[in-house]
Amino acid sequence: MNAPWKPGVQGNRDPFAAFICDDAALDVLRPVVIEMGWQPEKCNKGGLRNAVQSLSISASPNILMVDLSESGDPLNDINALAEVCEPGTVVVAIGQVNDVRLYRDLVASGIHDYLLKPLSPGQVRDALANAQAVFANPKAHEPSVTKKHISTAVIGTRGGVGASTIATSLAWLFSADEKSPTALLDLDVHFGTGALALDLEPGRGLTDAIENPGRIDGLFIERAMIRANDHLAILSAEAPMNSPLMTDGAAFVQLEEEFRQAFEMTVIDLPRNMLINFPNLLSDVNVVLVVVEMTLASARDAIRILSWLKSNAAHVQPLVVANKVQAGVAEISKADFEASIERKINFTIPYDVKAATNAAKLGQTFADANRSAKAGVAIRDIAKSIMNVGEGEVIDGAIKPKSSLLGKFDLKSMLSGSKKAKEAPASAQA
């Protein structure tokens, strides 16, 4: 429906068609249609399901009006309509249910407008004129010629380091602050929190994509993704735990391709196991955030991930982000951590449990709920740096090897040393 517009497809299409359930609405609609210069014969008797049946064997019009009054499941029927509509078709729905949630859901599914019965000539005239303007001026759907698409993958070295929190915050900042059309792809199919952080239901979009990769196109993206704001859409899933992930990864590659066409920014919440199983996920990624905590285990896994990136995705710009940092209580000092991974930590986000709790209570992303907090400011700095990387800036995170490389790091002694330090006060008291 309101999918990316494709020039040249409108030549053999009718300018308008309608499928209306009752005679009263038809009597209001037909005179307005004549005023618009269209054929009143295109105002058909029958509702949304009649529209699906008719358009399955004929080209969809430029502007389509459908009546939802006889539909028991409007959202499901709209999805069926999307399957038979040409990309770029502007759909105006009418119905008799005055429900704000239904309106929002319909708009999120690709409907341009929703008119409430009983219809008035002025109401219909304004809606059709607006729909005509949208079809004639599809600039919002044209690919950007001035901005490069930037794809960012966020990978946590350990579970719980906050990679998902950073991913959702970045996606929100790109869309809300930079006004850049942004896609958030949460690839934690079973336990993803991307939709939850945005106070949304995850839907079946990602599951449908995995099960039917051949159906992935601009129209699928428009229908399957859930809108978080005017510039942000999320694709996620909440698959049952008894449903293993069965895919060769083709769906992920196709999704990224469609995202490049439809958005300026893509943020991928990428679990470590997905990186291992589907290394081609990074083939078109520009920036990889490696999210770490100041622990021995995280240092070890950061080394492994950075080494893998160097060997298998040399084109990406890696940025190391230390999250939940507490002064004086870290298992490893910043200097020792940087020496072990042989590069600088690019960004440090302080630990702020109150800010995290505040975001959860408000149903907002961390960055949106805590703009004045130091942690929120740090995430905005990361967002700005990613935008700069897209403009060609390279952030050098490498450091010269020192004598205390990981190969010479005695991790066991460090760990035992920290234990002894903790035990020392007790011995002194004795």
Give the topology:
Blueprint: E1 16-20, H1 23-35, E2 43-45, H2 48-55, E3 63-67, H3 74-84, E4 90-95, H4 100-108, E5 113-116, H5 121-136, E6 150-156, H6 163-176, E7 182-186, H7 194-197, H8 205-211, H9 218-224, E8 226-229, E9 232-235, H10 250-262, E10 265-269, H11 272-277, E11 287-292, H12 296-312, E12 317-325, H13 334-341, E13 347-350, H14 353-362, H15 366-369, H16 374-390, H17 411-429
Parallel strand pairs: 1-2, 1-3, 3-4, 4-5, 6-10, 6-11, 7-9, 7-10, 11-12, 12-13
Antiparallel strand pairs: 8-9
What report would you give on this structure?
- This protein has 430 residues and is of the alpha/beta class.
- It folds into two domains: 16-141, 3-Layer(aba) Sandwich (Rossmann fold); 150-414, P-loop containing nucleotide triphosphate hydrolases (Rossmann fold), CATH 3.40.50.
- Helices cover 43% and strands 16% of the residues.
